[in-house]
Amino acid sequence: MTIVLTELSDQQQQSVAATREKVAKLHEELPRNELVVWTAGNVSERVPGTELFVIKPSGVRYDELSADVMVVCTLDGQKIVDGTPDRLSPSSDTAAHAYVYSNMPEVGGVVHTHSTYATAWAARREPIPCVLTMMADEFGGDVPIGPFALIGDDSIGRGIVETLRESRSPAVLMANHGPFTIGKDATAAVKAAVMVEEVARTVHISRQLGEPLRIEQSDIDSLYARYQNVYGQPGTK
Amino acid sequence: MTIVLTELSDQQQQSVAATREKVAKLHEELPRNELVVWTAGNVSERVPGTELFVIKPSGVRYDELSADVMVVCTLDGQKIVDGTPDRLSPSSDTAAHAYVYSNMPEVGGVVHTHSTYATAWAARREPIPCVLTMMADEFGGDVPIGPFALIGDDSIGRGIVETLRESRSPAVLMANHGPFTIGKDATAAVKAAVMVEEVARTVHISRQLGEPLRIEQSDIDSLYARYQNVYGQPGTK
Amino acid sequence: MTIVLTELSDQQQQSVAATREKVAKLHEELPRNELVVWTAGNVSERVPGTELFVIKPSGVRYDELSADVMVVCTLDGQKIVDGTPDRLSPSSDTAAHAYVYSNMPEVGGVVHTHSTYATAWAARREPIPCVLTMMADEFGGDVPIGPFALIGDDSIGRGIVETLRESRSPAVLMANHGPFTIGKDATAAVKAAVMVEEVARTVHISRQLGEPLRIEQSDIDSLYARYQNVYGQPGTK
Amino acid sequence: MTIVLTELSDQQQQSVAATREKVAKLHEELPRNELVVWTAGNVSERVPGTELFVIKPSGVRYDELSADVMVVCTLDGQKIVDGTPDRLSPSSDTAAHAYVYSNMPEVGGVVHTHSTYATAWAARREPIPCVLTMMADEFGGDVPIGPFALIGDDSIGRGIVETLRESRSPAVLMANHGPFTIGKDATAAVKAAVMVEEVARTVHISRQLGEPLRIEQSDIDSLYARYQNVYGQPGTK
């Protein structure tokens, strides 16, 4: 089925434009937080009031991204027709993002990177143990490992969804591949991508010289509950 | 008890304004020195001539901070009324800062971060051994570990104060959490936050390939005494 | 034999000028991606429609490079006469670049760095095992080690060519020395230089805490085939 | 003996002014190359045609340095009188720089940092083995360890001079302290400070996963001889 952008309502078209702007802008966070080299990471966000999401075009470098080149896709990962004849192809990870949006209606943003420390844990297929209060706050426990999956069909998307459904964590480390993170919107997913690299790095470094001490499960639960409810400014969470 | 900012004397109000400016500015040092990601660190300073201190608002990113959004608190950690209807909530670590100011009158500035290497030692609950002349200079010995403490009551503040009272170090590594540092003002506390990460990193790296050699206690004492008295420009220390 | 730049056709001279511009610009990627310190890395590119290539001058720092100072060489590594009396000497690695262009006609760009993690593997003379999907994508398998070779004759060039001919990898780690990378043009060779450091770093970090799991050869083959054919925008690869 | 700046010849005063400018500028390289945090590193240079050298003032941050605040000292480390009433005190490492200038007439520049990886080797009192061609080029062999010495008298200076006299290396790692480097001028000493950190880092990382292979002594000799004579542009070395 072909969806044509100009057939959307005015409000939906504005929503698409706003999301393009936001997703383009958020990509700046990936190099700024040293999560990516060259073109190897992408952010997407669901377009409010539509069955669409916006994602990075494939193989384009971060300093060449703008709202204009962002690609709009349907939830099955098909690029929609928008009257731009040379519209770029969406990220090669689009199918994985689309699968998440289709199967996790509460998710509004998805991020994928190959950030170094998170990917290092992924190459050993080893979850990151919850030994930091900031992990308890943000992830509510260990960061889990997803299955090894090849690109090209639903396997990566399924691996992400199945792993995250059994965890409080907004991040999954796909085996030998790298992290995918989710959030209520793209900003939250980017924050999770930043935080998963930070905890991957800190716990890695801690373990290099001995075994870090686990936090008790009851303390993890209490930190997680507090952070999800209390932290930040009223009304922003 | 409610304190209202406009009930302070003119001089006190100027003092509050100057401290807000300074604390906002000092927050720039945290990302510049790679001590923080996202919003996870905060600086506070006691307001001279008052029973108040100024601290970062909760959950606000470093590039959005300005003197205007800094929060003024009483020494029991309560935000004071300042006529700004949408004044933000103070950092979720405010109670810990407040406890330090209440119990260590000589302290004029407090900093908290989750800087990577310092936090890695904290996750193993292992003090950083004094094997560098710059540690002897700045910390006068090992950097100590504080207890594991949950956020929400006085435990973090008490852990900081009890640990620092038994040490020359201006930095304590709170177990599984991260460093807190103190100083005669916020600049000194920021410097201690920068230095504790630097020595945590250098000693970590040194120990990865063998055991660094300790400095004799008498040499530590002599380096510390000299640095505290001689270093820098006359009249600045 | 002396080649004089002004004896080239107008089109060839324009081609030289365009390549100088491009090669000067691409050198910015080396410090930006933290692949070099001081002057220790260089990029070259074959000049289309000629038997020449353009390379960095020796011992010049990256922030002093411009199209003007780039050096034009023949495929035997001799600097050509271009009417600029104080034309700088080409990089001390010019002979190695020249050997590659002479012996691998499909190569249009060469990069050499001493990037830290790649060089660390090179100092142990140990290939980087293919444990990441992005390695399968970009390198099609392990990153190989080349022989130990002294500067001054053909040995480095021969070592590069002999090693790369037996591998899908566009990168070789010359023993105790550092990485050389090739590509269809200088941009592709720079990308390979960025990626080889990234995978060297990620696999190093993964192995610090255990053994990363290899990807099956059939999966490597399928990822490599897909990436070389599908990734990026149509017509850019 | 008091030396007064205005009693120098016009040419000498110009020489002092030019050196101040150059030394102030070179300090920018320390943070740019991540060799220092806060104020912990310094550059000095001998003033041509005088018995003086210029050095950083003590405890001043890098972004506050300018030619104006640089301090002029005699070869015994005494600050000279220059008519500026509030002239700052020279670096607390001035005695060590002065000792080097007094005892090594061929040295025109000295740099001291606490750069992380070099200091990590220094804390274990372990020389950096020559396992990289770029070490053979720049250092002509291992980077040696100097003795443990307290600040306050000649011991640091003597340790530097005695160690460097027995080595080709322009860098010495003072035990538990950090690197000092020398050069024919301050630029060369800064380059050595950058390179010693780079090789300290690369060899450290290489050794984390096994033993890097040493380069044969005859190969080191041949690389060193070539680099000292051939590298760079004619007339710049």
TrEMBL record, chains A, B, C, D:
GO terms for molecular function: aldehyde-lyase activity; L-ribulose-phosphate 4-epimerase activity; metal ion binding. It comes from the Bacteria. One of its GO terms (cellular component) is cytosol. Transmembrane segments: none annotated. Its EC number is 5.1.3.4. InterPro entries: Aldolase_class_II_sugar_metab, Aldolase_II/adducin_N, Aldolase_II/adducin_N_sf. Its cofactor is Zn(2+). Gene3D superfamilies: Class II aldolase/adducin N-terminal domain (3.40.225.10). Keywords: Metal-binding, Zinc. The keyword Zinc applies. It catalyses: L-ribulose 5-phosphate = D-xylulose 5-phosphate. One of its GO terms (biological process) is pentose catabolic process. The keyword Zinc applies. Belongs to the aldolase class II family. AraD/FucA subfamily. This is L-ribulose-5-phosphate 4-epimerase.
